[in-house]
Amino acid sequence: MRTELDIQQDIDKTIKEIDSLSNRLMEINKKRTELKRTLLKLKSELRYFNNKKNCQPGQWCLIRKNIHQK
Prior knowledge:
The structure is a single chain. The protein is α+β, with helices and mostly antiparallel strands. The protein has one domain. It is built from one helix and three strands. A three-stranded antiparallel sheet has the order 1-2-3. It is rod-shaped, with a radius of gyration of 26 Å.
């Protein structure tokens, strides 16, 4: 038979686990936001070229300091 103390300890343990998971979720969301910003920044640096030197038609090439990469 579980006592009231056992139940209270389980509740406290569960609350701590929830707090820990909540903090972890906030960290994940922050990282996700950072990654989204980085992705948008990288997308803005990509341009689609059909007729550039070193770029094949229909491929994405990175434009940065006049460097064109396949």
